[in-house]
Amino acid sequence: MADKDSVEKYLENNPQFAKEYFDRKLRAKVLTAAFNDNLEIKDPASFKDATQIQESALIFDLIKEVQTPTCMERSMHKILQRICLLVNADKCSYFVCRSRNGVPELATTLFDVSPTSQFEQNFVDPNSEIVFPMDMGIVGLTAHSKKLLNVPDVNQNNRFSDFVDNQTGYKTKNILAAPLVHEKDAIGVIMAVNRIGANAFSKIDEEIFVKYLNFASVLAIQHHITYLWNVESRRSQKDAVDESGWKIKNVLSLPIVNKREEIVGVATFFNRKDGKPFDEHDEQITEALTQFLGWSVLNCDTYDKLNKMENRKDIAQEMLMYQTKCTKKELQSILNTKEKFNQEPEDCDQKEMYKLLRATIPEAKDVELLEFHFSDFPVTEHDLIKCGIRCFFELNVVEKFKVPAESLNIFQNLQKRQFETVQHLFDVCIVATDLALYFKKRTMFQKIVEATESMAEEKDRINHISNNPIRKEIIMAMMMTGCDLSAITKPWEVQSQVALMVAAEFWEQGDLERTVLGQQPIPMMDRNKADELPKMQCGFIDFVCSFVYKEFSRFHKEITPMFDGLNNNRTHWKELADIYQAKVDAMEQQKKKLEEADKKGYAT
Fold first, then answer.
1. Domain hosting residue 571, numbered range
2. Distance between CA 265 and CA 295 in Å, rounded?
3. What backbone torsions phi and psi does residue 383 show, to the nearest 5 degrees?
4. 448 with 469: CB under 8 angstroms?
5. Could you tell me which of 344, 320, 342 has the C-alpha nearest to residue 331?
6. Tens digits of residue pLDDT in 430-442
7. Residue 254 pairs with which residues in a beta bridge?
8. Beta bridge partners of 96
9. How many CB atoms are located within 10 Å of the residue 526 CB?
């Protein structure tokens, strides 16, 4: 058996072991400071005795916390502080399990709890809580599996979701999480993050975590049972609900929804006057009423949004005018109308002002001004149309120019049958953007092109198409497809940028499928196969785009430049695809040579 001197010498020669041992077994100073319990140990027989005293004080403190009829969140906060201290975690959090509209989820109740943090800092307001679906993240996996999870490195775990780190700027390295279970249902999850002084939580940390997790479990179950008891007591209540003696006999309740089918309120009616229960007729009347209530809510929201938009417009206009508006003196330095005509610019004759501008303002080429074209932007026509519509409403064109809204209605002079025809054509155009229907109509469109190509007179072609509504719809649908795919015919500088933007969106969706759903994305959405983009573009042009522009160039000669642009872009993509394929072939040949060399080496 070792004597005192040998033990002392061993501890001095192994300071790291001594630190870990005292930190794990004793930690008297830390525990004393944390629990405000000044223990005096006089000549303890062993470190084990001191540890038992400290642990007894800790357990007694936790038992008092559980039995004290205070706020559950405050008691849970103190328990989390002690657990965080015992397992040497940087932070701890408590997530409560709940179900909204039948969808299970986890919401933050206490977040980023540390041994010294205040309750007010860690308590999460319901309006700013972070919500996890039950099938997302380490927390969701813990609640779903109802098992303890120790993740040494979150980067190596596919279930880890980093959107909280992206919002808070905190870097999560390792996680220790355990569920709080009542009967067979998970009612919460406690998670410890980032072990201090080590790269991961150890088995001893797991044992301590589970041991003191029982106090949190008792507290959560007590709160859950109290909640269920309150619900059942209200459900079984038969006495009067208020002092006046008024009682609820029957209830008719309907939701108020907005245009997105989101519930924005509930309309509730109590106690029909004749004492009878509400019937279907009452439900129909109430449904009609809730529509008006929904419109009222929508009007308030719309008015609020319009006010915010108007305020933003005023601020932007004021900032723009502050930067661009010049004084009259500065204006005269450019347009010296007082010197020339002894008049203000707005009072000058139009022809005189034009001559003065021509003499004063330099030519565009002299000051190296560049021309402006919409095609300079790598966006689709659809985005430009949306931008134009947005500008139309934000600039309030109708109000400023006093254009009656009725005069903008293009259907106002149509009869009912004509309006139905136009509406049907709109439906055809909208559905035509589905490429599945495009493949079905390609053969019919090709037959129409072949039939009209043999006709010498343009009048005969027009009659051949206009006399048959099905032919018109097919041509209209193919025109919509041609417009939808028109980005592929743009100049190479624009088309290549558009292709990269679209590919970036696909890759982002593929990343979500890989990280969140744990699925392997298809090659088109796989960022790891980005080098194969030129090859996929060539396939897309050959399989989808080439037919429509080739047939349209036969049907209408003015479409030929678009077909030429398509072929030019395919040539560029083919060059890039050939370069990539040459690299792949070279790598395969090198691999074969290495394999053959290995075989020869084994043979000898």
1. 416-589
2. 12
3. -65, -40
4. no
5. 344
6. 888 777 777 778 7
7. 267
8. 107, 188
9. 17
449 and 354 co-located in one domain: no
Q: Is 484 annotated as a binding residue?
A: yes
Question: Do 136 and 106 touch, CB atoms closer than 8 A?
Answer: no
Encode pLDDT of 312-364 as tens digits. Answer: 888 877 777 776 677 777 778 777 888 888 888 778 887 888 788 777 777 76
Q: Which amino acid is at 16?
A: Q
How far apart are alpha carbons 113 and 117 in whole angstroms?
A: 6
Count of CB atoms within 10 A of residue 31's CB?
A: 21
The tally of domains found in the chain comes to 5
Say if residue 475 is in the same domain as residue 571.
yes
CA atoms within 13 Å, Cβ hemisphere of 317:
8
Distance of CA 177 to the CA centre of its chain: 26
- Among all chains, which residue has been given the structure tokens 């459900």? 235
Asked whether residue 377 is assigned to any structural domain, the reply reads: no
88: left (phi over 0), alpha (psi -120 to 50) or beta: left
Scanning 516-557, the segments in alpha helix (DSSP H) are: 533-540, 546-555
DSSP secondary structure of 149-166: EEES-GGG-TT---HHHH
**C-alpha torsion angle, residues 517, 522, 526, 532 (rounded to 10):** 180
> In 490-499, which positions are buried (b, 16+ CB within 10 angstroms) versus exposed (e)?
beeebbbebb
* Secondary structure in 3-state letters for 218-229: HHHHHHHHHHHH
- Which pLDDT score, from 0 to 100, does residue 193 have? 92
Residue with tokens 């080739």: 550
481 close to 558: Cβ distance less than 8 angstroms: no
Query: Could you read off the pLDDT of 485-506 as tens digits, one per residue?
Result: 888 888 888 888 888 888 888 8
* Residue type for position 447: K
Residue 110, helix vs strand vs coil: strand
Same domain, residue pair 217 and 281: no
Same domain, 272 and 337: no
What is d(CA 583, CA 473) in angstroms, rounded to the nearest whole number?
Answer: 47
Which letter, b or e, does each residue of 279-317 get, where b requires 16 or more Cβ atoms within 10 Å of its Cβ?
Answer: eeeeeeebeeebeebbeeeeeeeeeeeeeeeeeeeeeee
Q: Do residues 566 and 543 touch, judged by C-beta distance below 8 A? A: no
Residues 178 and 273 reside in one and the same domain? no
Residues 259, 299: Cα–Cα separation, whole Å: 12
Cα–Cα distance measured from residue 196 to residue 90, given in angstroms and rounded to the nearest whole number = 6
- pLDDT tens per residue, range 217-267: 888 888 888 888 877 777 766 655 556 667 778 888 888 877 667 777 888
pLDDT of 46 over the 50 cut: no
Q: Same domain for 46 and 146?
A: no
Residue 552 has pLDDT above 60, yes or no: yes
Q: Which residues make beta-bridge pairs with 93? A: 191
Instruction: Tell me, yes or no, whether 409 lies in a domain.
Output: no
Q: Is the pLDDT of residue 518 over 50?
A: yes
Q: Is 544 helix (H, G, I), strand (E, B) or coil?
A: helix
Q: Note whether residue 393 is domain-resident.
A: no
Q: Give CA 210 to chain center in angstroms.
A: 35
Please compute the mean of the pLDDT values over residues 304-311 and round it to a whole number.
Answer: 82
Q: Quick count: other Cβ atoms within 10 Å of Cβ 77?
A: 23
d(CA 460, CA 543): 32
Residue 306 in this model has a pLDDT that exceeds 60: yes
Query: Helix H segments across 280-349?
Result: 280-324, 328-334, 337-341
